[in-house]
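Appendix B, record 7
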Amino acid sequence: MRYMAFDRPVLRRTAGLVFWRLLGSGRGPSMTLGADLRRWALLAVWRDERALEEFLACSPIPARWRREAIETWHVRLTPISSRGRWNGVEPFVPVTGRPARSETGREDGPVAVLTRASIRPSRLLAFYRSIPAVERSLRAQDGCLASVGLGEWPLARQATFSLWRDAAAVRAFAYAGRAHREVVGRVRAHDWYSEELFARFIPYASAGTWDGADPLAAPAAGPAYGGTPER
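C-alpha cells (predicted):
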C-alpha cells in the first residue's frame, strides 16, 4: 500500500510517460465496495515502445514487481476507440500506424475494454446497489476472458478493465444483457456521473499470469498496457 504513494514521484519523473494512473482493485470482476489490498494496477500511456522498454529495464518500480510480487501480468494495447475524458484529459488517441482489425471490418480476435467514471456523491448509493446484478451478468457472460474492478479513490472514482474473446462478445454484454442495459439507462436518466470514459483496445502482447494463467494465451483468445502486480 505504501508504494501507491511512494511510486508517484518516480512516475512523474519517468521519461516518455504521457499519462498514468495507479489503481487499487476490487474483490470481484467489476466495481464493488470490497477492496483487494494485495492487488493493484498501473495504467500507463507511453510516447513510444522504446520509452516503455526503458522503464521496464531500468526503473525501480518494475524491478520491485519482479522481486516482491507473487504474481504479475502485463499487457500492451493499441487504442482503437475512446469516448470521454479522464480528469479533463483524453488519454487514449487511436493509433493509425499499427493495423487495427476494426479498419478491415474483421470481428475476430481479443478486445480489451476500459470504463472509468467519477460518480456524483448523491448517486453513490444507487450506483452500488446496481452493481450486484451487473456482476452476476458479467460472470455468466460467454466470451469474457477476464475482468477486474479498479479505482483511483475509494467509492467515487471507479473503473473496470475487461478482456473479451472478440467485439461481438462485447456488444452482446453491452446491448443484449438486461442488467447492464438497465443500469446504463438509469445512469443516463439520472445523471450519475460527473465524468466518464469508455475505450476499446487491441491487445498485441502480454506476459505473466492473472489468477494463474494468461487470459490471452488461452485457445479462445487467439494470438495475442498496464499491469496488475499482486502482493
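Remarks on this record: Confidence is low (pLDDT under 50) at residues 99-106, 220-229. The first helix runs from residue 3 to 12.
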